[in-house]
Amino acid sequence: MSQQKRQRAIRLFVVVLALTALANGLGNNILSNYFNEVFHVDEVQRGFIEIPRESPGILCMVLVAALGFLGNLWMSVVAQALVLVGFLVMGWMSPGYGMMLAFMFIHSLGMHLFMPLNDAISMDLAERGKVGSTLGKFKGVTTLFSMAAAVMVFFGFRTGFFSFQTGIILPFAIGGAATAGAVALLALMALSVPRQDGVKNHRLLFRKRYMPYYMVTLAYGCQKRIKIVFAPWVIINLLGQGADTVALLTIVTYLAGTWAAPYIGKMLDRWGVRRMLLAEAAYIVLSFSVMGLLAGMLAGGAFSPGDWRTWLVYGAYVLCVLFEQFNMVHSYMMRAIALDPSEVTQTLSVGLSVDHVMAIIASPVMGIIWHTWGVQYVFWLAAVSALFQVAAAAMTRETQGAGSAPV
Questions:
Q1: Which of 42, 181, 325, 358 is most deeply buried (CB count within 10 A of its CB)?
Q2: Is the distance from CB of 103 to CB of 182 less than 8 angstroms?
Q3: pTM assigned to the model
Q4: Which CATH homologous superfamily contains domain 3-193+204-395?
């Protein structure tokens, strides 16, 4: 690809990332409140809802293997079209519980299919020796527009412009409009960018060589439950806060992430995979353990909502959710150890499926643990899973040098 075409493709993809981040932020930032205020679920039901929401992640590797002949960009068009269908139904049709679950599944299928494609396209567009920095910059764009979505959610619900009691749920409807724009731009990219190698092997791809990547994605499936389900549920269920407060905390998290993502990308090029995996593990153990301690004290009545220690819970929430910025380390590691560039997208999809097998198991189990033994054990269990990052780091041979591919 010529430098001119590369720069044009990067500009288009940056807009795609902005639109998809805006759409995902408008959807994901309100899902817990949507389930709580529209369908009145408890913590056990909230855990089980993650089964239809996360099971598309398991199907991701099958879809990538089957649709690989399309190439990454055309598969991305298909993925975002599925997201659009889900947004249209949930935003405009006020579905009942069963229909909501069905179209949430379709929406989630598209969203999960796009995840490995996003990483693969980002790395394809990167210059040699600057993969980590490029991933960090793209992640920074995503984080910035996710923050913009959180700002919209905060002011929308605080002013009453957004509501769950209306026939049209505006955040979902706006998310659908942004997704439609992403579909159009991805199609334009697919028509104008030289096509990369497609999937050569249409069987499900597992290699012993890629075991460190599978291990970190297995751990990530457990750890991500904290970000998506149980940390927000502490704010909503234990502190009794609404969508505007969750959105405000999300704004703070994304504001921190706009700085953290490029920094982690630069450190990835400089330090290599092994040390970044160890840094990720240390961060997860510390932040999740602190949140577990505070949430356990809150649930046990050691302090009540409104007490000054509530601010410590808010701070711990931000630190817990911020761990998501380390996810680029996993994709970078896969790129570094790949036997063939054509295997990157397929193996990222397998890793995503491994992640979601754990997610489907962990979500209801963690919901039961919260209900039976206490909220603190949910966070401590997720902290223990960071041992997988430590083990993966031990299995990773280090080749130092900025911009090198540590394997």
A1: 325
A2: no
A3: 0.72
A4: MFS general substrate transporter like domains (1.20.1250.20)
